Amino acid sequence: MLRVTLDKDSVEIRFHHGLFEPEDTEKMIGHCVDGNRRYTTATTVLNGNLVYTGISICHSDDNFRRSIGRKKALAHSLQSLTKKFRTAVWAEYEAMCGF
Questions:
Q1: Which candidate in 16, 25, 38, 88 could, as Cys together with 58 as Cys, close a disulfide (CB 3.0–4.6 Å)?
Q2: Which helix (H) or strand (E) holds 20?
C-alpha cells in the first residue's frame, strides 16, 4: 500500500495482482479474449472514499511483470486526482521502489 498526505487530504493506493478467466476479462473490458490473463489493479482511496480503480491486463504474448502492471494501473487510477496529488504519489511510488 502507498500513502500520501497533502494538507488535510490523504490518498491511499492499494495494488492487487491476479488471474482473469476469459469470461472475467470480457466483463471487465467488453470483449472476449483467448486464454487466461494476468492483471494488476491499483485502487485509489481519497479520505476514505473510493475514487477510481485502474487496471492493467497483460497480453497473452507478454511476460507478466508486477512492476510494469503497477505502473500502468497506477497511471490509470490517478487520472481523477489533482496534478499536485499525482506528482506526490509518483514521487512516493518512486521512493518505495528505490528509484
A1: 38
A2: strand 9-20
